[in-house]
Design goal:
By secondary structure, this protein is an alpha/beta fold. 49% of the residues lie in helices and 15% in strands. It has helices at 13-24, 31-41, 44-55, 61-72, 89-101, 116-124, 165-179, 181-188, 201-212, and strands at residues 3-6, 27-30, 80-83, 108-113, 126-129, 135-137, 157-158, 192-196. Strands 2-3-1-4-8 form a five-stranded parallel sheet, sandwiched between helices. It has a three-stranded antiparallel sheet with strand order 6-5-7. A hairpin with a 5-residue loop joins strand 5 (126-129) and strand 6 (135-137). 32% of the residues are buried. The mean pLDDT is 94. Bound molecules: adenosine monophosphate (AMP). The site of adenosine monophosphate has 18 residues, from helix 2 and helix 3. Adenosine monophosphate is lined by residues 9, 31-32, 35, 52-53, 56-59, 64, 84-87, 91, 162, 171.
């Protein structure tokens, strides 16, 4: 099964993708994580995208389509969760073509609905484990009192460089201008399922599971 998690920054796509990986053996493909890895490694790609990402703008379609294409050539495991991709109509078209080339289908697009005020609060309170990437939030899922990641026991946590109010404003604008048209695109294709992204993490996971059948 191949699915897309669609929603604005802070909707909980990464958190839910990780649950699906654990529960269904699916493979999470997050273009944001791939680009952050490129930045951390200091590669040519990383240097090229750093300023764009930190400002909260979208990198070019060509770059992210190339990253996804590479992954689709590898192991398909229990299916892919596309997290943060596609973000534009050309990316959505490219994904359709790539899946077809691999004889694969897109089985569902889960739209995670949240309101903008909640996003600002969520994103400015967010951190991740520096070792395994587990997502924490000062408000809804704080780092355990012993200072150790509940998933892997590591004790280093990081905040994303683009998780600040100014960059978030740009990221939201990019979402509404370029990504939200995908809701109509996938609705028209009969692939869209919408869930309330503001519910508790496990409730959202339950709604996603029900939507996937
Ligand atoms: P994310 O981790 O999904 O919030 O992505 C972080 C940043 O990476 C975005 O604000 C963009 O700068 C860049 N990015 C990630 N995925 C894409 C994509 N599909 N298209 C364009 N830019 C992307």
């Amino acid at each position: 099964m191949n699915i897309i998690l669609l929603g604005p920054p802070g909707a909980g796509k990464g958190t839910q993708a990780r649950k699906l990986v654990d529960e269904r053996g699916m493979i999470q493909l997050s273009t944001g994580d791939m680009l952050r890895d490129a930045m951390a490694s200091g590669s040519e790609l990383g240097l090229k995208v750093a300023a764009i990402m930190n400002a909260g703008e979208l990198v070019t379609d060509e770059i992210v389509i190339g990253l996804i294409e590479e992954k689709l050539n590898g192991d398909h495991g229990g299916g892919f969760i596309f997290d943060g991709f596609p973000r534009t109509l050309p990316q959505a078209d490219a994904l359709g073509a790539l899946l077809e080339k691999h004889g694969a289908t897109l089985d569902a697009v889960i739209e995670m609905q949240v309101d903008d005020d909640a996003l600002v609060a969520r994103i400015t309170a967010r951190s991740t484990c520096g070792n395994c990437g587990e997502v924490y939030n000062d408000l809804s899922k704080p780092i355990p009192a012993d200072g150790k990641c509940a998933n892997c026991g590591a004790s280093e946590f990081k905040r994303r460089a683009d998780d600040n109010e100014e960059s978030l404003r740009t990221r939201l604008m990019e979402y509404y201008k370029k990504t939200s048209p995908l809701i109509g695109y996938y609705y028209a294709r009969g692939d869209l399922r919408s869930v309330d992204g503001l519910a508790e993490i496990d409730e959202v996971a339950g709604a996603i599971s029900a939507a996937l059948g």
